[in-house]
Write a structure and sequence with these properties.
about 425 residues, binds uridine-diphosphate-N-acetylglucosamine, four-stranded mixed β-sheet, 14 helices
Length: about 425
């Protein structure tokens, strides 16, 4: 099994380019099914999840090619409406294909994505919204079979602003006659990016970044060209690494506005942060201090995906910080692994109290994507050598991680075993 070998203790210095957002490119790749034409997408990160999404598109009949960070999808022919179990298992967010397959083919068959390391991740909100749009849904031997019998727009109220349910509802609504109004929609920047893409295809969709979104059912039909927005979680991860290790790092090609809450926490911990255009420069203090309680919330609140990397940084400092995870019920699994490096973390249900102290190298295992990134951050700041195992999780969301960190002066090597 491949692993990262990290020798900690080096301050990080220099510039690191931010890739396109994983959580934006995945729904947009799914949305390329809708226009029955060519979609040219720039700034696509080369990630395991992106490769899985491409496999799904190819399975459905699309022609997909990739050159550098540009992906061309031709969805003129779509002759299947199922996502095979292996591909659903490979990437749980493949449930995002449900809406576009339904809108394009009038029916869809997907296996249930099942539980995940970070919590149950049910899709009840996706399904109840789709039912309200006139989709009939039944379960059969672990598969869900959906049929767009009597599609119609209407008002849908989400009981929680789920990112995936918002995306699936918008995507299905593109095929619904009339107007769909989605109330209490998620406001994540990736949803605004999906809407920007859809507008280019001719879909009338309004309210990107707002909690009420309206979609007028129109068949999208334009060839489109779109650039994926920068990954705010990758941005946060490099800033947390710089804060943990000391030094001064500039992230380029980023969107400072999308990481406002993360920058606020890092500033409180003593970092000096300067934003200019699409760059953010973080100068770390001699030792990180404590922060006000970090409570994960739907956007524009503190992102649950940045909780683990920030916790890793907090472990290395001198202050005490409280983390409250409100989005996923099982998202502190990295805490036990960080403890192997000497971290002082007291987890109690959905809260974790972190008291910073020097960490030492250890053999640790990634429990999930962001938890894995947190272990790398801690390993970089720890004294001595760490082995971070289970890095297929990290591959799902970080492009050229070791390469980018090495360019900042870190001692990290990917070992293929
Ligand atoms: C997306 C992101 C993920 C991020 C999360 C929250 C992608 C590919 N993934 O995941 O990185 O951590 O948003 O910002 O974009 N829920 C239900 N029923 C549902 C749907 C969700 O109860 O039908 C619950 C979930 O269990 C969870 C919470 O709602 O507790 C948030 O989930 P959601 O916003 O849907 O996250 P994802 O779209 O899965």
């Amino acid at each position: 099994m491949s692993y990262y070998l990290v020798r900690g203790g080096q301050a990080l210095r220099g510039e690191v380019p931010i890739s396109g957002a994983k959580n934006s490119v995945l729904p947009i790749l799914a949305a390329t099914l809708l226009n029955g034409g060519r979609s040219l997408l720039h700034n696509c990160p080369d990630l395991r999840d992106v490769r899985s999404a491409i496999q799904i598109l190819q399975h459905l009949g699309c022609k997909v090619s990739r050159e550098g960070d540009t992906i061309l999808v031709d969805s003129s022919v779509v002759d299947r409406w199922d996502v095979p179990h292996e591909l659903m298992r490979e990437m749980r967010s493949s449930v995002i294909f449900l809406g576009p397959i339904l809108a394009r083919c009038g029916r869809a068959r997907l296996s249930l994505p099942g539980g995940c390391e970070i919590g149950q991740r049910p899709i009840d909100l996706h399904l109840s919204s789709l039912r309200k749009l006139g989709v009939s849904i039944r379960e059969q031997g672990g598969d869900i079979l959906c049929e767009a019998r009597d599609l119609r727009g209407g008002d849908i109220i989400l009981s929680f602003p789920s990112v995936g349910a918002t995306e699936n509802t918008i995507l299905t609504a593109t095929a619904c006659p009339g107007v769909t109004r989605l109330i209490n929609a998620a406001r994540e920047p990736e949803i605004a990016d999906l809407q920007a893409f859809l507008r280019k295809t001719g879909v009338l969709v309004q309210g990107g970044g707002e909690s009420v979104i309206t979609v007028s059912g129109e068949s999208p039909r334009n060839d489109v060209e779109h650039t994926i927005l920068p990954d705010r979680i990758e941005t946060a991860t490099y800033l947390c690494a710089a804060a943990a290790c000391g030094g001064e790092v500039t992230v380029t090609g980023a969107e400072p506005e999308h990481v406002g809450t993360v920058l606020q926490c890092l500033t409180e911990a003593g970092c000096r942060v300067r934003c200019a255009g699409r760059t953010i420069t973080l100068q770390a203090p001699r030792a990180l201090g404590g922060m006000s309680p970090v409570r994960t919330m739907p956007y524009p609140g503190f992102p649950t995906d940045a909780q683990a990397p920030l916790m890793a940084a907090a472990c290395t400092g001198q202050g005490t910080s409280l983390f409250i995870e409100t989005i996923f019920e099982n998202r502190f699994r990295h805490a036990a692994e960080l403890a192997r490096m000497g971290a002082d973390i007291r987890v109690n249900g959905r809260t974790a109290l972190v008291t910073g102290r020097p960490l030492h190298g250890a053999r640790v295992r990634s429990t999930d994507l962001r938890g894995g990134a947190a272990l790398v951050v801690a390993g970089l700041a720890a004294e001595g050598e760490s082995i971070v195992e289970g890095i297929t999780h990290i591959d799902r969301g970080y492009e050229r991680l070791a390469e980018k960190l090495t360019a900042l002066g870190a001692d990290i090597r990917r070992v293929e075993a």
